[in-house]
């Protein structure tokens, strides 16, 4: 596989405005489905002194290892996806299997798109 093909299967995920536990729930769900540049035991940490935090990871969506299971969030989470059109759509599908997802915005380029999503606990999670 050449580097262009590899880039077309990668999606950058940024989680903002959430607790470290909620960011970990999002990354954990995605790590079930895809390989990532983050080790599976690399949990987000707080060290911002009260400032807003952004956590990020890159996922390779070329193969789904396992369907992402429903996950619980303590509050709504803002997520930004950046990557090729098909790759972003594949990653969004996995988020939709784990959370209730609503689109808050998008931007499209020649070969890539960016989606801003709002995630909430899905119907398959206990209160």
UniProtKB/TrEMBL annotation:
Residue stretches of biased makeup (Polar residues): 99-109
Residues covered by region (Disordered): 34-53, 99-127
Comp. bias intervals (Basic and acidic residues): 38-49
Protein name: Uncharacterized protein
């Amino acid at each position: 596989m050449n580097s262009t093909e590899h880039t077309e299967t990668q999606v950058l995920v940024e989680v903002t405005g959430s607790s470290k536990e909620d960011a970990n729930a999002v990354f954990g769900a995605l790590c079930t489905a895809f390989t990532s540049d983050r080790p599976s035991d690399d949990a987000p940490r707080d060290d911002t002194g009260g400032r807003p935090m952004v956590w990020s990871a890159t996922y390779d969506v070329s193969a789904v290892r396992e369907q992402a299971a429903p996950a619980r969030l303590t509050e709504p989470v803002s997520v930004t996806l950046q990557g090729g059109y098909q790759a972003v759509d594949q990653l969004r599908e996995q988020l939709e299997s784990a959370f209730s997802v609503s689109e808050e915005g998008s931007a499209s380029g020649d070969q890539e798109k960016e989606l801003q999503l709002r995630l909430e606990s899905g119907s398959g999670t206990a209160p």
